[in-house]
């Protein structure tokens, strides 16, 4: 490896190595030999310095330590190009900082020299650019006080002598004694005219001092290559020359004009020559470098191999623990900080798309403009938010990737500052605090900022701080917020501002002026390796800030294993299972344990053959947020066009046309995105089917913005003033909480136990104990698309796709288990998942409810037995009549309607209605198993059915799973499992003796509302009879109601809508009776002929009519009854007014008589005659009566008023029809 030369410079200023004699050079060479020995080579450079090449690094070190030669002082540095990696440049350093202050601040960062450069063209004015010389290689960043600066390699300008104007040396090293003219390159008096000629490239187009000179440009390329690649200037010069020659040869034309080869041959020759030259260059420059790198890699590979051999046992240990340890490929992770200026509608949709592309770990949002009615959700991120409570606007939020472990921070801020924080766990058990801040106005105090920066952990505080200061805006005016931030940084030695000067995070939409008000402050350890820059335009006047930090975050470990199903392999899957059953002669196996194990093994063999199993150690939420279905190519195109228009306007902010184009592109983008989502929603709604209720409700929740429920995997759980962060701690914590609610140690009651034993051994025939039929099995196949599985990993989708032959095998399994009263142990082991209750704090362990995941195969058998139990209890009326929960055909609406009826009845009777609401805490978990078995035995549930349920509820155990981490198992003595199919109906049995209202005898008469028709009276009679039957404790299997109104019964039996309230109530009551096992039959008999008790009914009605204290019921009149009542009242009132009228032209007659032409058999003709007679017609005279501005004249041009007389008698337009009219009148 060639070492760079040592440059020996004479520093006494008398002469250089070119001007001394040979004898003096010989003496100097002898001193060099005595100091370092015989050297490899030496040469005198153009500037007069001596370059000495050493054999090795030891000899080079001796040369570098020389201080004098022959008594003359010398300096012996390396070439500048070889130390390029030690000289760096930083930008944006305030001019108020002196060189001495910068040198003192950087003394502990291996900086040995500081130099501030002047402004170009103004040598007396210092600039904000500073050169730093390091004693070692360049770092990525340096820190001055509280500011972090990025360090770049410094490449010097090419040397140009101002005496001779040649390149490569300075005036101090120039050998000429004459002043050379920079215009012509010769020495002559100044008053003499001369022609232009460059001394470096011999061109007559420019002077020797021109910076556009080709030779000067080539020299700059040489220096840049030397400094960036770490090679000598001479090597860089030869490489640049070789590349230039190769390029020239590639396009050069042949010099021989006599012979003109074809163009194709000339082109091929040129290409061959160019390839040869490139091969030569590769051989001379690239291949030696590659060989050097291969040698280095070989050495490193050998060292690595030795390390692996030395630590082989340690690596083996690490491999076994990879599943339980966090393993990410890089320590760097990305954050986004953004002022959204309202994050909803099209902007929210675009933001979701960018999140899926950028894939950040943490997002700090400010000015979200969210409120309590709007709750967006992200599939791959948790949301912590703090909305502005008392006015519009504002709001801050933080998005945290769901695989991270975090704890919300309690942050108290004044009204002038909005902030929310979260602490995220790292692998070293330390935390990093992330705080999103928004300062609406520039009115904040230093203490407010110091409160945010005062952290025990490393921190990142970012947001729109609305602060202006020369520290990050050198040319901007300072405000109060900026001064407060600056003072807080000065007062806190651990806080650093990593936002570089003039980052320009906000662009004023009106003026186009750029400012830096979105700031990022971190602790010192995070600032040294942090990088920060602006991201793409996303619809706000603030650009997102992309931050990269160097830290290893603690991530959640994997997901539970499951089978990845392939829809195209169900046939092969069924064949494999059937072959397994045939080979084992499945029908001949009667031992329940063996038949269960055989069935599960057959299912597993089919799964292994046809499906893939997921890796439990895979990282959850590792992928990006999935792209939205409405995001199409048009949306993507318009987003790009809006960003392009924004960039064009940003370059010329004062141009109104470009600003208008940007605004139009932005509006078009928003409109298209919203239209695309509406179209996607419309398509989704049109695709819904009759069995898509779960899909529909999920869609409705997304529409109204219910948001996502926080998962326990990410949240830190706090209990007894201690935080539980890791997935290994939380399952055991929840296991102790969930298992503690199950009662234990309850002594057995011998009386109850004897009754249970008698029920188990009872031989009384019972339909509940019949063998399970194929129809029952087929009806119990799960229709749910849920992917939740138990410990056997059998999914609902597998059971739905079983072939008919395999279903018969499953039927054999169920019958064996049911007949023997055996429940497999794997079916009694519940995997409990904690789910957060709505509107509960996520850090409180008591805010979670347990959901048990049990075997889908066991749930199928539970469903069969639950159907039988429902039938048995409903048919025999063994369920409390007031119980509406967990009953088919009943729901909470029944109780709401009943409560509404009680309240209205109380209002009508001017009485108070009192309701008592009872909440049974931990109802399923605390159920007494022995008491439940006793009640079931008393209800007639005996034999093997009772035995199977007892076996199902006893000997159970539970464990808690969070992610892929499963806690230890603990036994459960009492309680029914959450999520089991049998649990709701067993709970209803436990509530059998719950108090209810018992009605008395039914013998009653009512007085209906005045105006009720006979039809309504008949309907209310039927309704009251059915209500009496419905309120009985013991429901009869059949009810017959006799009525003499055929119209009432036909209306009730039909499906047409009716405006009579009694019809709707009667239909609903009949349906409720049917759902409870009571059939209703309506029979019509004329005048109740042959029905005993008719006289009693008539007597009750007669007594009710004559009773002054009658039982009045308020029934609602139908619209027709209301109209009829109003008409009757009006007719009576009008007739009474006529009778009492004393006017002479009103007379009373008993017989009116009729006018012949006033009547007609055709209704249309009769209506027309009536309208003509009463002047209520469509002629202009009637229109003028209604609207005085309407024209009453004839529409045919006559000047007369258009009334009945004019049309029938006078209008010439209808003269042709009058003979027919006269004939009709005669």
Automatic annotation (TrEMBL):
What PROSITE patterns has UniProt attached to this entry?
RNASE_H_1, RT_POL
| Gene Ontology annotations of biological process type | DNA biosynthetic process
| Residue intervals of the RNase H type-1 domain | 989-1106
The protein here is known as Reverse transcriptase domain-containing protein
Record-annotated Reverse transcriptase domain positions: 816-1082
Q: Which GO terms describe its cellular component?
A: DNA polymerase complex
GO terms assigned for molecular function: nucleic acid binding; RNA-DNA hybrid ribonuclease activity
Q: Which PANTHER family match?
A: DOMAIN-CONTAINING PROTEIN, PUTATIVE-RELATED, ENDONUCLEASE_EXONUCLEASE_PHOSPHATASE DOMAIN-CONTAINING PROTEIN
What highest taxon heads this organism's lineage?
Eukaryota
Per its UniProt record, what InterPro entries does this chain match? DNA/RNA_pol_sf, Endo/exonu/phosph_ase_sf, Endo/exonuclease/phosphatase, RNaseH-like_sf, RNaseH_domain, RNaseH_sf, RT_dom
> Coiled-coil segments, which residues?
none
